[in-house]
Design goal:
- The chain has 470 residues and is mostly helical.
- It folds into 2 domains: 222 residues, no CATH class; 204 residues, no CATH class.
- It is globular and about 60 Å long.
- Keywords: Membrane, Transmembrane, Transmembrane helix, Transport.
- This is MATE family efflux transporter.
- Pfam families: MatE.
- GO terms for molecular function: antiporter activity; xenobiotic transmembrane transporter activity.
Length: 470
């Protein structure tokens, strides 16, 4: 594929929208599950080594995971920006976005890594982490700090490939990475295959090795894959990395980064408050939250795929496909969520039994799972609407809507329902879930209104979809 062969063709003719959406979303969904498995692998293997190791990995992950989420959101702006440029047939614009994404990913990851390496010890002591956990958690994070630039490079290349509708190799690399992580965890922790025995820090060393390995593997893919090989045929221009362009790139992705980070922090706040009630409450909450996250993987993957196609259509070539594309995506997401909710309602006891056999935890978890089943479709609709808006070059609206609803409505309502009699008698942990559910309904309504206003006028305001590319 040459530079000149990048065409203005839209995602597909309207008769092929559904097959195109399904083919594109399939690998993305698998990638989402594989990335979730990557974290589960560490928890399961650390748990088998004892409470101290599990605690060190858990407290370490609580520090570096928000950093990774922020970096992911900052770079995700590449997806709609590249899609819009592809829709316009502008390979030079695409190359500039990719170059800035790689630089921001590596340098941003390096800066976050430096902050993590220098600040984790003082942070642990300041917040009162148990002294016996600090040495192992700090050693673990020193290695994770080396992984963050690799994660940034991987994410930049991943979003480049996915924006070019070439997600399959991303999925292959992520799945292989999970398998490699299992082996490397064991090797670095215990010192197999000539590697040093690092104990708890071995999980961080494995994270660093796998992160850089996946990043370099995807870079190799870009040299050979027909959809993106043209990017190597054009020497980079220093002007593409001007301070003004880097700043605009970051400003375009910043609302997405803050949006993702806010969602993570909201659930962290809820977990902390529920933990004050006791072990049974937080155990049941974590079970329900984990099940919800698993059930959101498929609808989220569909919405991410739709963002790629929407951004390319909105680039100017095929705006007539925007509404049917959104309709197909929303329909598939809603149908899948209803099917999963029905399955959860029918087999809630069996699902909860996969996590615990404690009668008290199970009983509370079953109550929370009914809320999950009832609200799942509303959550899916809100997620899809947010990705639609991002695909149209409007990352700020989902951020502002969710920020306001979460912090000004959902959390205060959840607190009142859980702990006070201001509205009804205190409901305990389920009150938080009612508060979050009400917030999701409010969020969905506001996002639907915003999308309707956007579609009623020009679907993409001048320059918005290109904020990362100018």
């Amino acid at each position: 594929m040459t530079e000149g062969s990048v065409s203005r063709a839209g995602p597909a003719s309207r008769s092929r929208l559904l097959p195109t959406l399904l083919v594109l979303s399939g690998p993305i969904i698998v990638s989402q599950f594989a990335q979730m498995a990557n974290g589960v692998v560490d928890v399961v293997m650390a748990g088998n080594l004892g409470v101290l190791t599990l605690g060190a990995i858990a407290v370490g992950a609580a520090v570096w995971t928000p950093m990774m989420i922020f970096l992911l959101g900052l770079l995700y702006g590449m997806t709609p920006a590249i899609g819009a440029r592809l829709g316009e047939g502008d390979p030079a614009g695409v190359a500039g976005i990719v170059l800035r994404g790689v630089v921001v990913g590596v340098l941003g990851g390096a800066l976050l890594g430096l902050a993590l390496s220098a600040g984790c010890g003082p942070l642990f002591r300041a917040v009162g982490v148990a002294p016996e956990l600090i040495p192992e958690a700090t050693a673990y994070l020193q290695w994770v700090a080396l992984a963050l630039p690799g994660m940034g490079l991987f994410l930049a290349v991943r979003f480049t490939l996915e924006a070019h509708r070439a997600p399959a190799m991303v999925t292959v690399v992520i799945v292989v990475g999970v398998l490699a992580k299992i082996w490397l965890n064991d090797a670095f922790v215990h010192g197999h295959a000539g590697l040093p025995a690092l104990g708890s820090a071995g999980f961080g060393a494995a994270t660093a090795a796998v992160s850089w390995g996946m990043a370099l593997a995807l870079m190799g893919v870009t040299r050979t894959h027909g959809a993106v090989r043209y990017l190597w045929q054009r020497p980079p221009r220093i002007a593409e990395l001007s301070l003004a362009r880097i700043v605009r790139f970051c400003l375009f992705g910043l609302p997405i980064a803050l949006n993702f980070l806010s969602d993570y922090l909201v659930m962290g706040v809820v977990s902390v408050f529920i933990a004050t009630i006791g072990a049974v409450a937080i155990g049941a909450h974590q079970i329900a939250f984990n099940i919800l996250m698993v059930m959101l993987m498929i609808p989220t993957g569909l919405s991410m795929a739709a963002t790629i196609l929407i951004s390319r259509s909105a680039g100017g070539s095929d705006r007539a496909s925007l509404r049917p594309l959104m309709a197909w995506t929303m329909g598939l997401a809603v149908v899948s969520s209803l099917a999963m909710a029905a399955g959860l309602a029918a087999f809630d006891a069996e699902v909860a039994g996969l996590y615990t056999q404690d009668p008290a935890v199970t009983a509370l978890a079953l109550d929370l799972l009914w809320v999950v089943a009832l609200i799942l479709t509303v959550d899916v609709v809100a997620i899809a609407l947010g990705f639609f808006l991002r695909g149209l070059g409007d990352p700020g609206s989902p951020f502002l809507i969710q920020l306001g609803v979460h912090w000004l409505f959902s959390l205060p309502l959840g607190y009142a329902l859980c702990f006070t009699d201001w509205i009804v008698a205190p409901l305990g942990p389920i009150g938080w879930w009612y508060g979050l559910s009400a917030g999701l309904i409010f969020t969905g309504l506001l996002m639907a209104l915003r999308l309707r206003l956007r579609m009623a006028g020009s679907p993409v305001p001048a320059g918005a979809a290109h904020g990362a590319a100018e």
